Amino acid sequence: MAQQEDVFKKIVSHCKEYGFVFPSSDIYDGMGAVYDYGQNGVELKNNIKQYWWQSMVLLHENIVGIDAAIFMHPTTWKASGHVDAFNDPLIDNRDSKKRYRADVLIEDQLAKYDEKIQKEVDKAAKRFGDAFDEAQFRSTNARVAEYQQKRDALHERFATALNDNNLEELRQIILDEEIVCPISGTRNWTEVRQFNLMFKTEVGSTADGASTIYLRPETAQGIFVNYLNVQKTGRMKLPFGIAQIGKAFRNEIVARQFIFRMREFEQMEMQFFVKPGTELDWFGRWKQTRMAWHQALGFGTENYRFHDHDKLAHYANAATDIEFHMPFGFKEVEGIHSRTNFDLSQHAAYSGKKIEYFDPESNESYTPYVIETSIGVDRMFLSVMCHAYTEEQLPNGESRVVLKLPAALAPVKLAVFPLTKKDGMPEKAQEIIRDLRFHFNCKYEEKDQIGKRYRRMDAIGCPYCVTVDQQTLQDNTVTLRDRDTMEQHRVNIADLRSIIEDKVSITSLLKRIDN
């Protein structure tokens, strides 16, 4: 685990050093749980968003997009339940004066049992080699059985406490499991209490005339309040979806793990409206569709898993997360929820407007049910970076750090180098860029030896480099280098676009999931 934490620290450092992610207000020593995306980070982030957006609105004729405002009428959040029930259970350690989420402390304890079990399995696998039967070992080994029993008992108790919203029981679990504060190492815990996560602000020109509004904690409600507008103006027929990408804000007390949990973050959400009674079928379909989207990136099926919720939100009848294997364990990057008709019914009740769908086939009106897919852009960005970051030992004894990003997501697709700064080589390199920059993002580099330039491009994940040399000036061929294999071969300048474009386009990813 310590080794994985070291890798994660290197990834955070790499993000700053190579222009991916900076601490916000860095010259003022930063601001907790707020980050800025640098010149390479914003390109990668935009590519992730484009991949998601096009997978929704290009590949599905019945999904359209909107962009709703961040500020919404305050009654929106009363109707959605956020004013009364958007809380985290928090607990303080009296010695360190640090505050923690009680549920996260318990989840970390569950993960420790999983790690202990895995440790026993790994030791046995090493001992028995090819003859090792993991399933049999897990079911027969006494120590594994003991850990599993403790884990299952804790999990059941934890799930019950969450569903009952029993704060005293959450604290008792922390005490019984002898969970200590990571800072002080003590078990001197306060009571658990609820804390609302919404940011408040005021709108209005005078103090007397100002009214309290909230920064939206999710983008979904902007979709729900626009359901009628989109359905009528787009003449949409069920089932249909509305997609949106936008900023959301949560006053996270326990923000941690770099950009994994932030106070200002970006979501990609799609609400899919369906006929009541068909929602669980659609829930299953969207689970598979979304998993296919993730796996098309080629990060390995073993790095993803579904995790069904222990505690269903009061409005849901099914919920699961897609988790990705980060250096700090399997963590949620996307949620898929069957939200029933809760949101539309609530907004109908609070607004006094009739929010229904007239079904011409059954000749009846009803409130649609909703399947939600919700993915954090920042968490997706982090999962991409964590998988891509690679330290390689090369045959010549040197080492390199390379970001093995999917070519379609890479910030820069092609770097063009003149071998030297003379004999017309820089001009020829610029000519190549002028032609190709209309098709994908290109970068010109002439500083340092060619080897150092390759390393810089490896570090930002650029999939292809082209070198203009003396031979180029004679026969219009260049050296094309592949990032992952480091192989080089001569190609004609006229063929560069056709060789590179399909591999680096978002379309290449979309074709993998549209089968």
Topology at a glance:
Elements: H1 2-17, E1 21-23, E2 35-37, H2 39-57, E3 63-65, H3 75-80, H4 82-85, E4 87-92, E5 99-101, H5 102-128, H6 134-140, H7 142-163, H8 167-176, E6 193-196, E7 200-203, E8 211-214, H9 220-224, H10 227-233, E9 240-249, E10 264-274, H11 279-295, E11 304-308, E12 318-326, E13 329-340, H12 342-351, E14 357-359, E15 364-366, E16 369-376, H13 377-388, E17 389-393, E18 399-403, E19 414-418, H14 425-436, E20 442-444, H15 450-459, E21 464-468, H16 470-475, E22 477-482, E23 488-492, H17 496-504, H18 506-513
Parallel strand pairs: 3-9, 19-20, 19-21
Antiparallel strand pairs: 1-2, 4-5, 4-6, 7-8, 9-10, 10-16, 11-12, 12-13, 13-16, 14-15, 17-18, 21-22, 22-23
Helix pairs in contact: 2-13, 2-18, 5-7, 5-8, 7-8
What is this structure, in a nutshell?
With 515 residues, the protein is of the alpha+beta class. 40% of the residues lie in helices and 24% in strands.
Name the descriptors.
seven-stranded mixed sheet, 515 residues, Rossmann fold, 40% helix, Herpes Virus-1, 18 helices, 3 domains, BirA Bifunctional Protein, domain 2, alpha+beta
